[in-house]
Amino acid sequence: MKLLEYQAKEVFRSAGILTPKEIMVMSLDDAVKAAEDVVGYPCVVKAQVPVGGRGKAGGVRLAKSKEEVANITSKILGMDIKGCTVEKVLISEAVTVSKEYYLSVVLHRGSKKPMVIISPSGGVDIEEISKTHPEMIFKEEFDMILGFKDYSLRNLYKKVFSGQGEKVSFSVFKSFLEKLIDIYFKKDATLVEINPLIIHNGQCMALDAKILLDDNGLVFHPEFSKYVNDNSDETEQEKMAREASLTYISLEGDIACMVNGAGLAMATMDTITHFGGSAANFLDIGGSSNPEKVVNALKIIASNKKVKSILINIFGGITRCDDIANGFKEGIEKVKIDLPISCRIVGTNDQEAKRIMNSIGINVSVNMDEAIQNAVKLSKDGK
Amino acid sequence: MKLLEYQAKEVFRSAGILTPKEIMVMSLDDAVKAAEDVVGYPCVVKAQVPVGGRGKAGGVRLAKSKEEVANITSKILGMDIKGCTVEKVLISEAVTVSKEYYLSVVLHRGSKKPMVIISPSGGVDIEEISKTHPEMIFKEEFDMILGFKDYSLRNLYKKVFSGQGEKVSFSVFKSFLEKLIDIYFKKDATLVEINPLIIHNGQCMALDAKILLDDNGLVFHPEFSKYVNDNSDETEQEKMAREASLTYISLEGDIACMVNGAGLAMATMDTITHFGGSAANFLDIGGSSNPEKVVNALKIIASNKKVKSILINIFGGITRCDDIANGFKEGIEKVKIDLPISCRIVGTNDQEAKRIMNSIGINVSVNMDEAIQNAVKLSKDGK
Amino acid sequence: MSILVDEKSKIVVQGITGRDGLFHTEKMVQYGTNVVAGVTPGKGGQLAYNVPVFNSVEESVKATGADTSIIYVPEKFAADAIVEAADAGVKLIVCITEGIPINQMVTVQAYLKTKPDIRLIGPNCPGLISPGKCKVGILPGDIFAKGNVGVVSRSGTLTYEVVYSITSSGLGESTCVGIGGDPIIGTNFIDTLKLFNEDPQTQSIVLIGEIGGDAEEKAAEYIKKNIKKRVVGFIAGVTAPPEKRMGHAGAIISQGKGTAASKVEALEEVGVRVAKIPSQIPELLK
Amino acid sequence: MSILVDEKSKIVVQGITGRDGLFHTEKMVQYGTNVVAGVTPGKGGQLAYNVPVFNSVEESVKATGADTSIIYVPEKFAADAIVEAADAGVKLIVCITEGIPINQMVTVQAYLKTKPDIRLIGPNCPGLISPGKCKVGILPGDIFAKGNVGVVSRSGTLTYEVVYSITSSGLGESTCVGIGGDPIIGTNFIDTLKLFNEDPQTQSIVLIGEIGGDAEEKAAEYIKKNIKKRVVGFIAGVTAPPEKRMGHAGAIISQGKGTAASKVEALEEVGVRVAKIPSQIPELLK
What we know:
The complex is a heterotetramer, with two copies of chain A and two copies of chain C.
Chain A: E1 2-3, H1 5-14, E2 22-25, H2 28-39, E3 43-47, E4 60-63, H3 66-76, E5 80-81, E6 84-85, E7 89-93, E8 101-108, E9 113-119, H4 126-132, E10 138-141, H5 150-161, H6 170-186, E11 189-200, E12 203-206, E13 210-213, H7 236-243, E14 247-250, E15 255-259, H8 262-274, E16 281-284, H9 291-302, E17 309-316, H10 321-334, E18 341-347, H11 350-359, E19 364-365, H12 368-381
Parallel strand pairs in A: 15-17, 17-18, 18-19
Antiparallel strand pairs in A: 1-13, 2-7, 3-4, 3-7, 5-6, 8-9, 8-11, 9-10, 11-12, 11-13, 14-16
Helix pairs in contact in A: 2-3, 7-9, 9-10, 10-11
Chain C: E1 11-14, H1 19-31, E2 35-39, E3 47-48, E4 51-54, H2 57-64, E5 68-71, H3 75-88, E6 92-95, H4 102-112, E7 119-121, E8 127-130, E9 134-137, E10 146-153, H5 157-168, E11 173-178, H6 189-198, E12 204-210, H7 215-226, E13 230-236, H8 247-254, H9 260-269, E14 273-274, H10 281-285
Parallel strand pairs in C: 1-2, 1-5, 2-4, 5-6, 6-7, 10-11, 10-12, 12-13, 13-14
Antiparallel strand pairs in C: 3-4, 8-9, 8-11
């Protein structure tokens, strides 16, 4: 789960990390009130959306007066940024910036532990910098026994803060990093990112904030549940899937897929493409054999108006094929489906599944390629 | 450095550990006021001294009324417990105790990490229990990566809290342990001990508290400097030595020793005993060659009225023998010494040292046994 | 031969009395796996599908000499279960459980680093099987046949699909290892490739990867330097939308790796034959 | 032979530009020790007693191939200096510094456990010497003579006293190791006894202990099982007042061990000849 900037900054402030003075608002009136009563001028109006590139899309703008705040906020609220409608803006103090740094704590798969990434060349071009000037990017592994190693951190500090710009002491920098890693572990995050980080009166300050939370850890953090419905750039189907605890991703094609297991679901999409078709979605119904999940899955894929054919690809293991078939039968009875269906089921109890599917008029293949080629054909026949 | 009960409990309370309601007082009036205004009756009057066994010495007593508080406090204040005069008492709420547990976090040399020791048979006899019923003592290693291991802690919990008495939940117990270990590390302690620990309304409560601080860590903890003069059962010489940054321990004999290095100092004492004498002190002047230390050392050993002879045993390494001799010469000039002196100096620059010592009329031996036998003889001649 | 598990492996099932634990204990025993013990705290002394249950892994190891543990306990307790198994001295720990918080695994991995003799497979994996000898996991036993193809995969059902097509083509498997799909796993592609390379029964290797991370790219480097046997690959996700990005940090770390294209290219560059669709794998093995 | 250090050892001095570091670098070089580098952050490029100074241990190791580090940095930075040396890949780290907070050493020891090839001696120790070959520490070189007695000691000046009497008696030392007196140390009695047992030059061993802890008792057990050479012991503190107690916990852990009497008894029981006073040691060796 990705936290929006204002949410991440709430986490930052409770951990003692300095941010600009700022207020999240959802209306024009509140925006003006925030600027007038609390934040002052100049201030920055920042769209709160769960996608990157809002700056280039015009979602972050400086306002120098009441009129400008009103004018800019009215433009940003309701704006569409990469498919997300802006419903919230942050009215933020415009802080003097002498130099922009980049700083993040991120899970590093290779070393199996968090890593600190820091650069004296922060700002919107950091990814480009990392390619063209890799020597400007510094990395430091966090040690699970020692924490940060003093000797190593001192070297890092010298390299990063030796240039122009306002100075920060080593101990301030170190304690700032310790706060970040504390957030990382205590909140079960996989990324805590500040870009830009600035030095303000000798202190580190976060001008922006991004936190990615590990979904597996959310159960320990009820404090984030209030944000769940807030942070998604999801389609209608994706939202339905989340509520039904299914993993669904909307795609551009016209063959709806229902598969068990993420790897097999991806391989199914790849094979559809290989045979000239195009998948309408990624859908993993998971390892469970719960028929209700199948009913929900069917509802969701059928609600996509672009779909021309339905492909079912099940490899039973823990998943019992007859459970899937029963769920499908129940679903077909509840959801009116006008689309042609191609079905492949193999594995645990597949004979019983075949009998059930046949009973509702659906043929079952044991061969994945065959079923997929059929689904592709069906998707084109209708055109 | 050992914290007194009331000091350790202040640390406990800031860490969120439950203790009885209590107030430390230094006068009869304040004791009565504390009982009347805050603590209530019955209450316990507890002598605050840095030595064990105060209970058996009558330093902990229950008071049921204003009169009893006054009466008991007046007896305890000023009482001598193992050489310590009671100057402070704790007026403590008398909490109902259904069962006494023992709990400590202590440095374990063997495993090179802290260990938790816990017993359902807490109270004053815990050491006896550990000998006669070792199966009632449970130990749990703290892991520097994982912290407490859940599976192991659950086993411990089942064993310790399965008997009679008020119940505590596993999660309350675990979070209590985590607070203790937190104190242990954050305060640079080598021991955090609660005996007895009780369960009070489903919570763990510390009825008593003992914290030993690592002297090497005190530099990071200015919060304890206010206690330094407070917690010592030290003799006059020991106090002088502490103020001069020397390691001195008062003993019962009559040969004052000045030695460099703790091991050699102990071996010197042992050899004195071997040759029929008896050391008046342990004194390690350390590895430094600072002449001022030698002057101070001389002042301290000479201030002990029991001393009959002085033994100097120096093995120069980093310590330069001529520096020691110069310090000694300076000391002899400042401090009037009427005692016979036996001197052994060997090692770095020992020839120069010999010259200096000879110049003030002191013979220098190179043989430790010879010098010690001489010191023993001198200590007896005077009798 | 075969790798990691065989007819001599003695298995202890952690969480044996749970729904999944019990179901798969039955399947493993039916397959012929030597399941010697189960563990559920508080249920010591019971029998679960005729397997004796102990209160702790330590007790089970002392009583039965179990050397391999398989973990079916719920995600909240699974990381601790790995630690318990490691402390009890089993040599191979297979963690099936899905949904363990990543940073709990970060901590467990740091701990396992202090015990270099202990190998973890998973978490969030289907386990492993040496056909005809021993099945430790949830893989459907009947799709496997004893043979000479070593299979290693980050995926679950996709592995079954590939094995199904290998076995259907008349070939068989030496061992099939599902290493799991989580960002932080124990045994990785390289560890498994090394074992297959040294295993006389294994004549060729199938590596099944997917988008995300750079495990396949690293495996390719390793294959170039060390593997003498034929390796056939498949990467799922060629047509998948790009993985959700880990902020700028993700881009800085990955530097373009992690896509299916990058992985296919890396593998093909070192001579691995990469199948376009799973059904091509058997012919590439021949 | 000799153990741990010899004429081939390449020494890097951490904290070489400090007062103690510089003084003892001079003494070590004069003794003939192969001091190849020094480290003081920010002073790289300078020379200290003709030894090249580097900004980091890593740089010094890369430039000189140093395999042994000796640490003279102040107590506030010493634990970190041990970690830096370990990360830079030196194999032997000798920490002279006194006064490192105990729990910093607890953490460092847990870290070193993940690097089993690296050995730490100390902290709060005088270092070690293989007479005539190499001196790494603050021991006064002129009291030693090349010979066949291995000396291991928790103490500083007492070690000199014992060595002085050994050398005065006409014997000499193979290696003398001061393992340090802190509660938490790296190399212990048993580690050193093992090395002496395997060293052909060492014919007999002197073990110098003192009150506190149970290292001598454990050494006695080890001697009984493993050591074939003559061992002579001395325990300081027979007449010392009992150690300040670690609360009830101390008594529960020690169970009577830790006193000089307990140590002497444990050693004598396994055939170690224990001297009553240091000067008896040479005759017990003969």
